Amino acid sequence: VEASIPEPQRAAWKKFTPKPFETAEEFNAEAVRHIETTLARSMYNCDEGAAYAGTALAFRDRLVLDWNKTQQAQTFTDQKRVYYLSLEFLMGRALDNAMLNIGKKDVAVKGLSDLGFRMEDIISQEHDAALGNGGLGRLAACFLDSMASLNYPAWGYGLRYRYGIFKQEIIDGYQVEVPDYWLDFNPWEFARHDITVDVQFYGHVSKYQDDDGKNVSVWEGGEIVQACAYDVPIAGYGTSTVNNLRLWGSKAASGEFDFQKFNSGEYESSVADQQRAETISAVLYPNDNLERGKELRLKQQYFWCAASLFDIVRRFKKTQRPWKDFPNQVAIQLNDTHPTMAIPELQRILIDQEGLDWDEAWSIVSKTFGYTNHTVLPEALEKWSVPLFQHLLPRHLQIIYDINLNFLQFVERNFPKERDILNRVSIIEESNPKMVRMAYLAVIGSHKVNGVAELHSDLIKTTIFKDFVKIYGPDKFTNVTNGITPRRWLHQANPRLSELIASKLGGYDFLKDLTLLHKLEAYVDDKDFRKEFQEIKYANKVRLAKYIKDTLGVSVNPSALFDVQVKRIHEYKRQQLNIFGVIHRYLAIKAMSPEEKKKLAPRVSIFGGKAAPGYWMAKTVIHLVNQVGKVVNNDKDVGDLLKVIYLEDYNVSKAEIICPASDISEHISTAGTEASGTSNMKFVINGGLIIGTCDGANIEITREIGENNIFLFGNLAEDVEELRHSHMYGTYTLDPSLAAVFDSIQSGTFGDAGSFSALVNGIVDHGDYYLVSDDFASYCKTQELIDEAYRNQDEWLTKAITSVARMGFFSSDRCIDEYAEMIWNTEPLVPSKDE
Ligand code: GFP
Ligand code: GFP
Predict the structure, then answer these.
(1) What fold is seen in the domain 78-93+128-479?
(2) Active site residues
(3) What are the pocket residues of ligand 2 if the criterion is a CB atom closer than 6 Å to any ligand atom?
(4) Which residues carry this modification: N6-(pyridoxal phosphate)lysine (predicted)?
(5) Superfamily covering domain 554-793
(6) Which of 36, 44, 491, 761 is buried deepest, with most CB atoms within 10 A?
(7) 3-class DSSP state for residue 398?
(8) Whose CA is nearest to atom 9 of ligand 2?
(9) What is the ipTM of this complex?
(10) pTM of the predicted model, to two decimals?
């Protein structure tokens, strides 16, 4: 390959290849050059924002050099690549991560201090890249980190939402959504104006005969929107591999501006096409696990799948390999059903554009995709109406019908006596209007389907995909328990703890092999280690207390028990159970004698998370938490014993402050509803204990850390159906302490009772679908056990340290190796030293 460039040019090029900075001085030379020339600022107007920009650009330059080398190596070796398609990538901030992975943070700290800046202040200037809702999006970000760190040739593909999801403001106790202008300054992306894809919508399908007399379908007419690539380099830790995250932005294919219209006085409509096209990548639909049939969302999904598939196919075609090699060269992972359109799209490309016959094409398609399911909530499984499909993507609808026909014929051959099964497994739901069941299409078009924790992977096989297990056999279904990247969630979030661990384990190898943490068990009884571990927790609580004071003006006692629940607000995650528990505690405190009060450990209940804008019940929960906070935090009888905090606009960078500061975190979903949960892992690895139900990854966490080190409560998944039944048929009585909580709400203790009546009635009169009442007594009892356990600080500490030592399993590196082996069949490409 090198030979393609003549010698003198090669020599010139090599001579001028930029040299990455090594020392503090060289770093400063780069940073100052960027501040002065790229930003056009000077010493006299360089604020922290500009210093951040200079630092980020200096690190970006380093990243890009490795990014180029990695991409070239991946192209030249031409081994199998993984493409991770996700509508969400919740990346958070990039600078600290880049510094860690490149390994030059110390140099930059020194350099910045010479220029008069503190690293913490510089890091906090960065705007979070919040292209996601919650766990699913953050999982995708952890996976990118692991894939790069393990040297897998892997790309992410997503959408570049101009306004992110939304920024949450709490005004008078209510959530208010405002746009998130995260792109105001973003040094971490490269606009690839040369990489664009035309994506078609609407139109109609015509049939023709080609020269060989073969019938061909041609999708004609409609409208074209252009996808433009924006590349985000993803550096691995402890390696020079830098992978790529390609995000698509939308633009009008006709150009930005219609001069003819402008000249004839139609000023506004001259930019209308552009605005309409740009809407496609304007915002991420907040997920409330309720699929609303929004045309724009289907448009987004297809736009992103079509652009990504075009790019992947183009890259494959450059190798000039035969089509049958495609699945050996390309693995595409579907992160939930959102990218399912990629399946009919690849089939369409192969048959309509590349001229393969149906079976040959389908054999390629169905070997290429893997599908990860993240929820069993039936209302969350995506469906799109057939008429909408017909209108927006007429050719794809035909293809889906053909996929379905072939599939149903196959089922019929294998299960000739079972007529019902055809109806049940059909991709098309015979409703009015008919619906396309995306999850079924994803199962049928993929060679592996995985759940994200053991219980969840079992549940998908016995509930939503039961028939498919019968049809395909159990081997098509597998489990990969979620994980988190220890680089961000231990080292970056909790540098002192990471340092303490490194001092005992002889270095930072555990950040690459988290199972090494088990060696910490040897220090469980080590006095000095314990002392330091405890001091670190305290310091992290002081840091959070300061943040609370600065943002909300509320003083909290850092010695109090910090009880945290931060995640999307959803009824199944049961923040309502938590706040009802808080009210129960408040009522109990009000009734306590001074002696009793002395015995109680002070508590700070901390909530955070966004509610989908249209999810009224979730918003009511936010409002209730804030109202309770207002009353409790100002009640002199209560003082320090209880504080209730709602942290506004929860995101990744806030999670990095919150996770290390918790004593207890809450993972209290109705059993069987939380597929995995990943913040449970983040809290435990930072030395916090958890209160949780037997759900998702809580079960495997318990298995790893031991049941003495976790506070489990509540009904089991297997009991849920019967309990729900008992609510419906009135054979059930409301828990009395919950009734007391409701009385206090209804008597107006926390403001206008009417605002909370739907929340209360949902439990009292409307079946209590999430079984709050059934678990309430057990929840409160367990909270008392926690109070008691916290009084014995020594034992608490033993539990916390033991748990950290046993969390080695939950690294996303372990997940990625499992995906690579069981699903993708890919090997790492380790960068050669001399490069
Ligand atoms: C091309 C080149 C690579 C180069 C990348 C960067 O790859 O050497 O690093 O572009 O965009 F071949 P494809 O995107 O065409 O695979
Ligand atoms: C979803 C599921 C979680 C799971 C993540 C990642 O996340 O149980 O841990 O995906 O697999 F619900 P949320 O968007 O609900 O946080």
Answers:
(1) Rossmann fold (3.40.50)
(2) 374, 567-568, 573, 678, 682
(3) 133-136, 139, 374-375, 452, 482, 567-568, 674-678, 696
(4) 682
(5) Glycogen Phosphorylase B; (3.40.50.2000)
(6) 491
(7) helix
(8) 677
(9) 0.86
(10) 0.96
